[in-house]
Each structure stands twice: as C-alpha cells, then as structure tokens.
Hints:
Mean pLDDT: 96
Number of helices: 9
Strand order of the largest sheet: 3-2-1-4-5-6
Number of strands: 6
Strand content: 5-15%
Distance between the termini: 9 Å
Structural class: alpha/beta
Order of helices and strands: EHHHHHEHEHEHEEH
Bound molecules: 6-O-phosphono-alpha-D-glucopyranose, magnesium ion
Largest sheet: 6 strands, parallel
Amino acid sequence: KEIAFIFDLDGVIVDTAKYHFLAWRNLANSLGFEFTEAHNELLKGVSRVRSLEILLEIGKVALTEDQKQSLLIKKNEEYLSYVNKMTADEILPGISNLLDYLDVNNIKYALGSASKNAPLILEKVGLLNRFSAIVDGNDVSKAKPDPEVFLIGAQKLQMKPENCIVVEDAIAGIEAANAANMVSIGIGDAELLKKATYILKDTTGFTNDFLKNLIN
Ligand code: G6P
Ligand code: MG
C-alpha cells in the first residue's frame, strides 16, 4: 500500500526549541520574571502568538495589543539571529538516514509545522528541496491539536489521511495526527506522548529495522 510521511520540524528534524527558549527567556527577563525549561515545554508545538500569551500568563503581565506586537517582533528577531547560524550539522541524528531511506523506497514526505520560519530553517540545514510539500504556520488558520496542518499536507501529497504517518514531538501534534486519522510516531517521553501509535525515545530510533516493520 502507498504511504507518505508528514514531519513536524521543531524537535523532530532540528532542535530549535533551544533557540526559542533563549529568545523567550530573554523576553521574560526584560519584563522582570524568570522563564524556565519547564515553562518552555508548554510552548512546544504552540503558535508564536499563543506562546506569548502563555508567557505573559506565567509572568502575570498584562500588555496592550501594540506592546504584544512589538514583543513578538523582538522575539522573532532574536530567534532568527540563532536560526541564521544553523547548518546541516544541526539535523537531528537518524533523520538524514530516514529521509534517504524514504527516497530510496519512493515514499513521499511533507512538512507539517506551526512555524512561520519553517522554510528558512529547512533552507539553512539544506533540506528545503527534499520535501514534496511544505505546510507551515503561514498556511494554517487552526493550530495543532486541530488536524488542519496535516490534512493540508496529505492533500498536497495527494494521499489519503489514513495512509499518512506523522512524526511529532509535541502532545498537541500527536493529537492533531490522531484527529486527522493518521498514524502517529511520537518522539520523546513515552508517558507524555502515550496517545501516539508508536513512540521512540529520540530520533535515533528510526533504524532500518523499525522502518521495515512500519512500512511492510
Ligand atoms: C513550532 C514550535 C513552537 C513555535 C511555533 C511557531 O510549533 O514547536 O515552539 O512557537 O513552531 O514558530 P515560529 O517560528 O513561527 O515562531
Ligand atoms: Mg515540534
């Protein structure tokens, strides 16, 4: 049977969460409160605007719409200063092998990310032209856990949702894949991602054996 993959970006293909963290933490500090790694977990898979809302709730800070807009710009500028330094070395282990495996087996793959910076990041790490389709934060109106991002991905690949396999590190992303009636592979903590069809501790879990079993 014909299948396709749809990949989340942040936390699956590259670890940009650490750069989001630096930028959000500096923003929080400039507003006078602490922002921890645990707080950062709450922002994984969450849109930029919603992330700021959550951050402001953590700091119990109330701002006007104009102030929020300028903070969003500031945060993204700092984030992009890190992204602009990214290279192919930052592709997570196992991912290049996985993409090669899919190419060799004529299995198409798309990107399904909430990030508006997704094309730039893929370009930086040299993967932009390998995806058959890219769906990013500019293409969707409903954020994960809504299935929209993955359903558009399936459509662009001309695949039925039930024949798509989503790779995700965020709970919201697993929920989105499940809501889209797709197979889901969670990357990370088994307890956190227990709603996924399959769970791998990290991206090194994409061994050829795992892939053979999955696909056949
Ligand atoms: C991904 C990340 C989130 C990030 C979101 C928006 O889902 O996991 O942490 O907030 O993308 O990213 P952007 O690059 O548009 O700010
Ligand atoms: Mg992610």
